[in-house]
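## retry 2 of 3
previous attempt timed out at serialization; input unchanged, resubmitting
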Amino acid sequence: MSPESSSRMLRSDHLTRSARWIGAAVGLALVAGLLHGPAGATPVDQPAVRPDTPLERSGEAAAVVTARTTGKPVLITSKTTDTTEYRALPSGQIEATIAAGPVRMRNANGAWIAVDVSLVRQADGSVASKAHPYGLKLSGPVGQGDHDLVAFGRPGRRSTLGWSGPLPTPEIDGSTATYREVKPGVDLVVEATRTGYQQLLLVKNRQAAGQLKQIRMPWKADGLTTKLDGRGGLKVSSGTESHDVPAPMMWDSTVDQASGEHLRRAPVGLGLGKGALLLTPNAAFLTDPKTVYPVTIDPSQSSGANFDAFVQSSYSTDQSAATELKIGTNDGGANKAKSYLRFDNQEWLWDKQIQAATLSLWGHHSYSCTARGWVAHRVATVTNTARWTNRPAQYEQVGTSTQTKGWGSACSDGWVTIPVTAAFQYTSANKLTSTNIGISAASETDNYGWKRFGSREAANPPSVTVTYQTRIAVDALATAPETVCATGADRPFISSLNPQLRAQISDTLGTQVYGTFEWKVVGSTTSTTTTEGPGASGSWMGTTIPDEAFTEGSSYAWRVRGTDGTSPGEWSTWCEFTVSTMLATAR
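## retry succeeded, writing output
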């Protein structure tokens, strides 16, 4: 056995639990618009109106001043959210780290605490995560009848997946609770994720499978309407918002060691009974001699702003509740995968100058440690309708990387990065409410480009670090003697050979500003510039044209832009005038 093959065999701990079993995945990934509020509703990539508040601006300004004074980054606490944290840098720039999934939450006192999905027993015998953003709660030991197995979501938008029959005291291991022998030969496992949970029904042998021709799981969704979508899945809605729940699948435990992929899968029927989900495993698949037991059935839920999912040519269902993202191929191109990420609530980026944006992903599996290229593109709006046959439109490439992690000790699990600056610049310039990114292998026929990353549901969710500068604005232009700003045939006369060019310049963070003035003969390709300042934000600055720079009867154009000394703003419009010391009135 080669060293590479030996290393792959040792990587079973990095394969998902379902790689050891057959699985039927029922992804009940209810978006934030249903369980959490409007933030996660299916987005439209168009401008909206939501300027920064004065409180946010003052918090930024104070942090920038402190960072410049101390030479150390300063947390801007007024802008912290469950997914995003902002820091003022000594350079005057601001750095935002945006996680794809919630990484912090408010406690009972309103203070931010880290999300911790580890499970602990409660006084009443139930089980709950230490700090879960959606109040995940699991059942303790109960007797006969229908029971709430997993409750999840905010008040008024809370869903519950249940179990019919007795449940023993669950065994707790970190974020996983295991209920042993809920039926002869069947274990029930619930794993908490930062956006929801994964529930695994482990059917250990063919005899146990015989009692599960149809599985009834009680289902409640407060404030939500659930119906079949006609494609084997569900449509869950609240008011005008809706979300498609994918059709379930089951897969064989035959796993390719190099890729970690399940090689045999089959569909599972999904229906609605009175207050319950009805799962019907594929009987032919269960009785096939090639099928290897146990069997896993996996209804999952997730919520929250932001979104990610992979699409794969061999998959026809929504994978937005999966705990991983995939790119590339593991079989020479016969099957291929791409992944997509959407970062929501991006209004705060509007009109910012984006210096850098870097996407970080936790690599937990790769075909080898051999460096192979992968690329990032800006794409159209990403939703849970994404499939291999319905991929978001792909626009310009925004980054490349060859970083590889997740294969043995030579390149163990860890963070990899890829630049995505242009995608966030586009969001800022076009005032969009979300930034949408697609990642893929540079070659979709080269097995060595196969990579798997943690998704927003995973312990290490994707994140983007954005460094930006607030724009320095030119609020007004003037001259002394006074003229209007016009060009061409409408340009005014000015009655001085040494006029003063003036501009009011401001910075949203209230930092000191400078003004760079530029002038030239109309139609000329050469110009003269000079910088004046510093001055307080919002102040007027001026520069006086020196002797012998202007000549009688000539026409000149001028403009100005502001800067804080590190990064310039946009140039103002051009203004023109004709010098005439004999005639002081405009045409």
